[in-house]
Amino acid sequence: TKVSNVTIIQDISDIDKRLLDFDLKIERQKGYRISGDSVGKRRFLAILLTNCISIADFSTGNFGSFDILEADRTRLASQIVNKQLSGFPDMDARMKMF
């Protein structure tokens, strides 16, 4: 499938606008990179992952095309989150599934 340069430029512009919600921006130097503080990047990544990986898949370690995620590390992160959830009784039920 061919995509025009105009389409790519428009898509990058749309992404750039969405990144502003996280105080992030796209830098265009020898390719593209996302710049901003690590907290904003982590928030953005968390939302991206929750939109791309179902809770059922995440809980079984099936991360789809996100092979950068390691099952052992995500399992450890899940244990840490679950341990902390006891202090947040009003937490959204979906969070408890992680």
From TrEMBL:
Source taxon at top rank: Bacteria
UniProt protein name: Uncharacterized protein
UniProt keyword list: Transcription, Transcription regulation
InterPro entries assigned to the protein according to its UniProt record, in alphabetical order: BglG_antiterminators
The keyword Transcription is annotated on this UniProt entry: yes
